[in-house]
């Protein structure tokens, strides 16, 4: 029996590591279920979800040239398939938005000189406010006792 990408198979957990679980497939080959493919929720400890010799249904998600087989328990679940088909068929259509041309002169008559003078005025006001607040607190070089 050949392993085909996307096929669902019954297997048995043969080993558990901190990064995933190894599953023996019916054809006698072993594949890996990565920790991120075990459940729909965050999996901190694989032992809370799987035990050695547990029967599992897996989906083949990757077959490398060197023989490594990537499996997923999460994608083999029926609710995952329903969610995936719903996302594909019920994707909302969005109209393309018009881009605003910021450099257009009709949108704004503010020149560089106007922007520069506004910046200098704001900067001067902030510096004066800072100096006033430092004077009230004692600021730099105040008396130390």
TrEMBL record:
Entries under InterPro entries matching the protein: NA-bd_OB-fold (IPR012340), Ribos_protein_bS1-like (IPR050437), S1_domain (IPR003029)
Protein name (Swiss-Prot/TrEMBL): S1 domain-containing RNA-binding protein
Organism in which the protein naturally occurs: Fodinisporobacter ferrooxydans
Highest taxon of source: Bacteria
Region (Disordered): 80-114
Pfam families to which the protein is assigned, alphabetical: S1
Residues in S1 motif domain copies: 6-74
PROSITE patterns noted in UniProt: S1 (PS50126)
